[in-house]
Structure formats: C-alpha cells, structure tokens
Amino acid sequence: MSNPAPPVPAARPLYRRRSGRLVAGVAGGVADHLGANVLWVRATFVALMAVGGAGVVAYGLLWIFVRQEAPTVERAVVPRERQQALGLAALGLGVGLAASAVGNSALGWIVGPLGVAIAGAAVVWREADEAQRRRWAGAGGRAGWRAAVLRVLAGALFVASGIAVFLLGKLDMGQVQFGLLAVLATLVGVAVITVPWWVRLVRDLGEERRERIREAERAEIAAHLHDSVLQTLALIQRQSGSPREVARLARGQERELRTWLYGPGGYRRPGGDPVTEGLTEALAAAAAEVEDTYALTVRPVVVGGDRPLDDDLRALVLAAREAMVNAAKHAGVDEVSVYAEVEPDEVNVFVRDRGAGFDPDAVPDDRHGLVGSVHGRMTRHGGTVRLRTGPGEGTEVHLRMPAAQVVPTEEKEHAP
Amino acid sequence: MTEPVRIFLVDDHALFRSGVRAELDRSVPDVTVVGEAGSVAEAVAGIAHLKPDVVLLDVHMPDGGGAEVLRRVRVAQPDVVFLALSVSDAAEDVIAVIRAGARGYVTKTISGRELADAVRRVRAGDPVFSPRLAGFVLDAFSDRPGAAPPTDPELDRLTRRERDVLRLLARGYSYREIAGELFISVKTVETHVSSVLRKTQLSNRYELSRWASDRRLV
Fold this sequence. Notes:
The complex is a heterodimer.
Chain A: H1 26-34, H2 38-49, H3 54-65, H4 79-102, H5 108-111, H6 113-137, H7 145-168, H8 175-238, H9 243-262, H10 279-294, E1 297-303, H11 311-330, E2 335-342, E3 346-353, H12 369-380, E4 384-389, E5 395-402
Parallel strand pairs in A: 1-2
Antiparallel strand pairs in A: 2-3, 3-5, 4-5
Chain B: E1 5-10, H1 14-27, E2 31-37, H2 40-50, E3 54-58, H3 65-76, E4 81-86, H4 91-100, E5 104-107, H5 112-123, E6 128-129, H6 131-141, H7 153-156, H8 160-170, H9 175-182, H10 186-202, H11 206-214
Parallel strand pairs in B: 1-2, 1-3, 3-4, 4-5, 5-6
Helix pairs in contact in B: 1-5, 2-3, 4-10, 4-11, 6-8, 8-10, 9-10
C-alpha cells in the first residue's frame, strides 16, 4: 500500500481547549498552538506570577479573547496531570504572595480582597464558557440551568465582596475621593462580570455578518442556476424529440455556465478584469454565435494574451466568423477548430475543419462567402488569407493581420 | 492490439461513470472497464488491487480531487498511466493535474471513440494534448517581454520544433497530420510531445507553478 507522507500540519490556530482543561483551557490551548507540553505552559504562567502577578493578567486576557475550540475532541485529564497542575497553582499562589511580601505594599491587595474578586470573576467566566458549550450541545443542556444561575450569582457575590472589602480598606480617604473610587470600583466590577457577554455579543455580530454574506452568495448562485441551468433543462425536456436541438441547448448552456464559472469577471474571479471588448472575447462570441446557429462545436483557443479590438482586429474577427460559418455550412462536420495566436507584430487565426473540403478553383464567382466576405475584408485592412483545402481533405483558413502599433493590454499579467 | 486495455474509472458522479462505461463497452471492443471508484480512498485501494493499465481520473472530487489520487498512487505504482477527464477548461485545473503526473487531459464532452483513442495513446506511452492544453502550454512557455528569465534553460524553454508541434496541436491537427505538415515521422512528433509533457511537469517556470499553486498543488 502506498503510504504518503502525512501533510505537514500547519500551525494550529489558537483555541482554548474544551475538554481536558482545568480552569479555562487556556494553557492547554496555548500548548496545542505551540506544540509544547502543557506542563511547561502552566509553569510559565506561574513564573509570570512573580512579575507583579502578570501570570494572572495574561491568563485572564487570553481567557477573554481566545475562543473555545468548536469540535468536540475528547481529552481526559490524567490524575497525575491534575495533581501537577494543582501543585503548580499552589506554587503560583505562593509566588504571588512572596512577590507581594518582598515588593511594594501596593501588591498586597492582589492576594487579599482582589484575590477574592478574581476568583469570583473566574467562576462567572467559566459559567459563561459552560453556557456557550450548552448552546453548542443544543437543547439537551437545560438540566443544569438552576445550578448555573446559582454559580453566576455566587461568582458575582465574590467579585462584589472583594471590591467592597477593598474599598473598606480605603475608608480613611476623603469623602469625595472615596465616592469616586467606589463608583469606579463598581463599574470595574460590573465590567469584569459581564466580560463574557460583551465578548459573545461582539462575536455573534461578526458571525451574523459572515452568515449574511454567505446567504447572499448562496442566493446569487441559486438565482443564477435558476435563470440558466433550470430553464435550459426545462427547454431540453420539451425539445427531447429533437437531438439536434437538445445538443444546441446543452452546448449553449455549457458555454454560458463556463463563462460564469471561469471567465473574467465571472463567479470565481469577481471584480477581476474589467470586461473590455478584447480579441479573445470577440472570437469567443463569434464562435458562440456560429455554434448556436449551426448546431456544431466551435472551441476557440487563444494564445498570447488579449488585445483590445481596433478596426483591423474587428475585421479579422468578422472574417474568422465567416470562415467558421463556411465550415459549418459546407464541411459537414460537427466540430471546427479555431486557433488564434497573438504576437507582438501580427495576429494569426486558423479556422480548420476535417470535413469535405472543396476545389477552390471550382467555386463559382457568384458564391460570395469566402472570396467576398473573408478575402475582401482581410485585404482591405492589410491582412492576408491563405486557404488550404482539397476535396476530402478538410479546409483550413489562415487569416493573418499585421498589428497596427497596438500596445498589448495584458503583457505582464494575462488571465489564463 | 490483441489484449484489451484495462481501464479504471474514478469520478464522484456515478451517473457519469456508468455513462462512460456503457459507451466504452458498447462502441470500443479493445477497451474494458475493470473497475470504478467514487472517492479518493476507494480509488487508491481499487487501483492497488486491480492494477489497471489506464486510470481515467476526474479532476474535481471531494478530499483533494484527482491530484490527490495521483499523488498517492504514483508512489507505489509508478507505471499506472493517468488520463485526466474533467468538465473544467480552466488553465489552473489542466496544468495542475498534468504537473501532478497525468499523461493527458481531455474534457468530458469528448466522444466515446475519441476517448478510446486517447486511452490507447496514453497506454502506448504518448501524451494526449487537447488543443486547449496545447494552447495553455504554449502560453506558459511563451517569452513575453518582462517575463522572468528561465532558471533552467533545458526545462524552461521549448525548442523551435516543439513549439511548431504544439502550435499545430492547438490548431486541431492530429499527430499524423502534424507529421505530414512538418515533414517528420509520427514517431518524431510523439517524441516532441513527450518532451513538452516532461517540461510541463518539471519546469519551474513562474506561469506553470502559479497555475499549479492556484490549486494548491506545489
């Protein structure tokens, strides 16, 4: 059996773990993102505690701004890992205490009242995570509703009492100062408690916008399919007695859909090239016309980039169209090859069929087609026509038009 | 040809598979469809088991498409020949499967008889270039002013003769007609086309790698 090398895993986007987490899955998520061991990430957060409690702040910020992972990957927390993590948490608490003991006294309140507030906030945030998880799980999660409210209330109480104790410690301040501080602290408390809901609100808005864009796109595709493919299919069903007509409809529809899917300015390249009337497009249009009128296949291949149409090139396209019509009428084939090559100083178009062919000398003078329409047109614009045919050999018309000082439009970046 | 060519069909549309199978079974006696698959995994397993001569490969499929099948099969079975078959005429699709290792590319509108011809030809070791593919390759190798200079002259440039052959292919000529036109043998035409195929697959020209990377292949 073949055993291909597994694709190189791209760096995983940062998500918080939903399972196998201890507090909020932040450490686990960071570990997954960096491809590191969880233990080291946790140890880093603990070490950061020594720097003015930065570990807690970092953890909190990551908690707020990083989403939970959506897919349900089941990870179990090994008892050993839990013990290690608890040990680290205790160590972190110790580090925080020690830092506040040796540092300035301002840090003292981190482990006091504010510590209580932080714990309360953690409870509330975790409950918000749970609520989101229940939402993902669907209606099945109504059971723990009462407990959830209790937990949120308890958390809010923690935060409030933490802030209150902190304020009580500042009673010696003046009235005005104390009032301001109390208002500020209350605002902060409310902000902290409601963070998860704010975050969710913002995310839901973004999600809704994306959904609306997707919806609009779906609607556009549906509308297009309805106007084109479904209509054609209905027509085909009504015309099913006539294979020729069915083929014509199918071919026309295929061409139209192809242009929409792959063409410039089409569905896959919205806002791509501005639709300027160029040689490629004019030839394709001419081929399409002949396809539709004479029920045969004409697929132009254009090499060498596009050119804006001038009078000479317009004449060239018309002459090529006439050659296609000729082939369609007289050759008795169901396919005509058209090949155009754009060179800096000239444009060559070959129209070829594998059909009956004819003896050019035997064509009566009153037959207008090739001589008048093709030859006349080309020579009037300084081009040449070479005809190559014989009875039973098919026909190839070579049209050559020298390019008048035209600057090619898409020299550097021509659309495939 | 004494032994029938054994074909394996890979396409996620069951309707299309049965259509191709019916058409080949009915109209072409020396080609037999030995198996078919509707997904990448099925295809890889089926090809390993049945060891067909030629795999007809759809370009667009879930799970990575034809290119993924090519990549996984060619490691273990480098001698299985792939002919890509797709509704898409977009350059990036055509170039991408060719660069992943397919020996030819035809569109799904091809008739049963032409398809059988193409199968026989890739089976015999010759590439199959539709006029459109020839056009793309000509474009990719053209030396427009301002194009990046080739890094590997041997691979990044077509010889004059290869260019002539490609041009005639794009004009809808068959190998035999090209041979007559250029006063060379059919064998020589085949050699030129094979060489163009090799260059298309291996060259690092910007245009080619851009088309391939559009389909995230390189």
